[in-house]
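Blinded run. Sample ID left blank on purpose so nobody reads anything into the name before looking at the predicted structure. Input follows.
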Amino acid sequence: MPDIFGGLTKLSDNDIRLQIALFQSVTVGNAIKETSFKAVGKLVEFANMFTGKTDESANKINYQAKGVEDIVLSQIKSLKILTRIELDEMLRNILIEKCNILNMNVANEESSDKLISILVTREAAKVYSLNPYLSPASLAEKISDNYYIQFLNRLHKDLVKESPEQAKITDNNLQQYLNKAPIELIRSMSKKIILKELSGRGIGKLIRTETGIKNIAAVVECIGLDAFDVLKTAISSVYDTVLDINRVSRAILAQLVWVSVKAYGSKFTLNSDILPSYIPANMMVEQNEEEIKFLMLIANRKDLTNKITIDNAEIVKLTSKLMNIEEKMLEVNKEYSETKEKFDELESKKNEYADNMDKSKEEVKKYYSDVVSAKRNFDYADLSYKKLSTQISELNAKLVQIKSEFEQYRSELSIADEKANIIILQNSTKLGLLWHAYFYRFRFDDRIFEQVVIDFTNAERLKIEEYLKEMHDSDDSDAYSIKTIVPEVENETNEESKMDEVLKCAICMVSELKNAEIVYNNIDILAVRAL
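Blinded prediction complete.
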């Protein structure tokens, strides 16, 4: 799979010198030096077209691109004594240095080109707030697209601001390159833009009067960028994206990614039709209908599983509560029997105290006091008994209802499981055969396929396959790792053996709100799971 070095190798020696010179010369310091900027402490107030800063912002560095351009050209001239091998090595070392500054010593001279390329791409992506979990090839193309739009916007602004003398020079250049352009490209351009005059002057006037970049994009597609002051625009584009010192480096990295993708001459990314999970257009409707049914089945199964879990927890809770009440009921029942026996005993002696003939006044008074006390205790025990009996009846009724519901859910889940498992087995077996054949250098844990079928749609699997393909075709699959995992190994004392068990984790964006984690160790793919 291509990376930024694949594009850089196709650049001329002078283009490589330019890239080196940009890193060495396009700095915040040179911008300040060229403009005698007074408030160095306000570097973070640089203009940024992506955050609403405008050319009229009060705190914007009013750098002179032409001054920095002279520094770059001088640096290019000084690099002409170096051979291509020396230039390539110098640029590589600069990229390593920049990545280490931006990302805390992640690369060295022994690092693979693939690792350096991925690091460069991920750092450049921060300029445009792109998702770092896109496959490196996809990320490089998105950076290139974003930079190109930014570049054309800056070029358009520069052309609008040209003086009449500068505009005349630009229009003459446009005419020269228009004369060299193939007639097919000119016809294609004429279909996209409305020209009153097919000439350099006519094109220049059209570009300067438009509010967007539609026309300038069509012109560049026809005659290329050489008719314009590309270096000045590139420098201006870098400073346009600056919000802090680190973003100067990242902006130049983004420019380098664009140059590399453009120079490579073909797509960095794969055509999806060569991936294992690709579905031809004429089969998409049927596939989508089947997938929707399967997703509904999986969702229903998950819902039933959740309901069973909730009901089971409620059954345990109610059963525990019922046991506690029944234990308390035993105590209350004992108290009820004792108080009833006491009251009945006193009640049976009622006639002996009714006429007060044989009993003293104190004995009668004490008897009736005992009766009142015994009746109160009996009534309280009777009330507690009835209250607990009601609670037990209600809990038993709830348990019967929930257990019935629980069994109903289990029955429905059994049916859903049976249907889902048939589809999962079919799809995971098919996916396993495809992945084992397509990614022949990898060894997959066979448990992966079932989880992938459950967790990811077909469109999401294509994203995973695109990422795996890049890893598969790379000489350094470890370069894709975002983090590492050291598994816990019992009774392991050999540190070297522990290091052999370190697992790598790559994270792949499969949709706007969903990522997949790929856990691997060299050629062993151990897990592909949703995050």
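Unblinding after everyone has recorded impressions. The longest helix spans residues 361-438.
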